[in-house]
Amino acid sequence: VYCSYNGRGFLRHVLIRAAGNTDDIMCVIVGAAREFPEKREFTRRLMKRCPGITSLYFSVSSSEKMVTGGCMERLWGKEHLEDIICGKKFAISPGSFAQVNPVQAEVLYELAIKYADIKSTDTVIDAYCGIGTLTALAAERAKYVYGCEINETAVMDGQENLRINGIGNARIVCEDSGRFMEEFRGGGLAADVVILDPARAGCDRRFLANLVQIAPKRIVYVSCNPESQARDVFYLVQRGYKLKKLSPVDMFPWTGHVECVGLLYKV
After folding, report:
1. 138 and 218 Cβ atoms separated by less than 8 Å
2. Is 224 a catalytic residue?
3. Interaxial angle between packed helices 177-186 and 205-214, expressed in degrees from 0 to 180 and rounded to the nearest 10
4. What is the sign of the dihedral through the CA atoms of 243, 245, 250 and 251?
5. Which of 12-16, 33-37, 253-257 has the least mean pLDDT?
């Protein structure tokens, strides 16, 4: 086991993902160096002892802040973790973000879609869209959905997820969300609904400024950090929006953390 105090050892983390509605289990071994002692023998023994693992990866991380590194080596099994979320199929790579609580994730996504109240004539933006979960769910109801995500691996997953679900009225691009909104507005396009699910830090001012200029009728804000969400909602309220609903979803039982889904509408 790696020790951060003296820099000795090999194993930093073991990341395990279990699908909620399939039998897939993904395991990622995170080392402190590229040299993996007895890698083949380790893989053979692990798979013999844990035959339920469907994907086994090795990653190297040199940072205390990042659980996994940029490089992923597949040691055994399938390329993706496959799951069914809200009735749709999703492929998830080890480098893509996925909610850790699959049962409550469906509650979260269904609530976000309910608040969005998407009509068949609506154009929707799904900002910070990850693997395209909300993009796919919104596309069921909307005229067209634009998804944007800066993580290239997640974008590739998202594009594949649109394909395997037969969704033709949506596309996902690899782009910083603030820049995407700026280009969207500059292209003379309009959106009726914007769904956003940013990281804990929340939205930057570039994104929010362009969001206000696009002026969607409804904004659905999904957040894992109520503090940054409150800051961003205050910005929007000062610029012509009203917070209509705010609902917590207990994604992390027995902790003080919740996800929050907020609905804002243009006054």
Report:
1. no
2. yes
3. 30
4. negative
5. 33-37
Going by C-beta distance under 8 Å and a sequence separation of 6 or more, which residues neighbour residue 140? none
Assigned token pair, 225: 């950090």
C-beta of residue 55 within 8 angstroms of C-beta of residue 78: yes
> Looking at 129, 148, 203, 224, which residue is catalytic?
224
At residue 63, the pLDDT reads 66
Query: Which burial class, exposed, middle or buried, applies to 234 when counting CB atoms under 10 A from its CB (0-12, 13-18, 19+)?
Result: exposed
Q: Provide the H-helix boundaries in the chain.
A: 39-49, 102-116, 133-139, 152-164, 177-186, 205-214, 226-237
Q: Which residues are CB-neighbours of 90 under 8 A, at least 6 positions away? A: 82, 83, 84, 131, 132, 133, 136, 157, 161
Tokens encoding 261: 């889904």
The label of the residue with tokens 């749709």 reads 88
Residue type, 257: H
Phi, psi of 87 (to 5 degrees): 85, 0
Torsion angle, alpha carbons of 15, 19, 23, 25, to 10:
-10
Residue type at 170 in one-letter notation: A
Condensed to tens digits (0 to 9), the pLDDT of residues 197-223 reads 999 999 999 999 999 999 999 999 999
